[in-house]
Inverse folding.
């Protein structure tokens, strides 16, 4: 009699535990899918940020980005939207081009890889930012408040800069014709 009560209680407890386990397992899977989806979206956002500066600080299209990495446009779109994980081959190609895979996957560290290409890209982007800032500063100057000598000095600075730009244009024209 005691043994039969024990088995009945054991069956009830086992049944309850199985129900709890199956529900817990379902919730665990849901949580894992939800958080993995969120993680994939964050990774995709970081990949998109890299595409925005991929060409020495300039944005490239999804198609151009895909071609540069040997991928299909739709694959890149899926990576950026978090619908698919970024394969190791893509992370490797991005590293070779100067982008940090640890940053892509975790958001930690520099966007740029600790290699020659990473340093070159970062340097070019920083240089472009400085030039953009200088142009914005020119536009923000209230010329009416400057003295005549200050205006003349500004004109001289801009003429020198324009001359440098003109030399670059002439060099490029010579390179294109040869």
């Amino acid at each position: 009699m005691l043994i039969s009560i024990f088995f009945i209680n054991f069956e009830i407890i086992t049944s309850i535990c199985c129900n709890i386990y199956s529900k817990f397992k379902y919730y665990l899977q849901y949580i894992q899918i939800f958080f993995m989806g969120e993680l994939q979206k964050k990774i995709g956002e970081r990949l998109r940020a890299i595409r925005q500066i991929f060409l020495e600080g300039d944005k490239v299209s999804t198609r151009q980005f895909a071609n540069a990495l040997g991928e299909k446009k739709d694959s890149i779109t899926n990576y950026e939207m978090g619908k698919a994980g970024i394969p190791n081959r893509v992370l490797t190609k991005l590293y070779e081009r100067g982008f940090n895979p640890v940053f892509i996957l975790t958001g930690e560290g520099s966007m740029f890889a600790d290699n020659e290409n990473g340093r070159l890209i970062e340097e070019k982007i920083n240089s472009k930012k400085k030039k953009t800032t200088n142009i914005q500063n020119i536009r923000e100057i209230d010329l009416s408040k400057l003295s005549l000598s200050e205006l003349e000095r500004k004109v001289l600075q801009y003429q020198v800069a324009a001359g440098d730009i003109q030399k670059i244009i002439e060099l490029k024209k010579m390179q294109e014709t040869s």
Q: What stands out?
A: The chain has two domains: 2-117, 142-178. Residues 142-178 form one domain. The two ends are 104 Å apart (CA to CA). The chain has a mean pLDDT of 80.
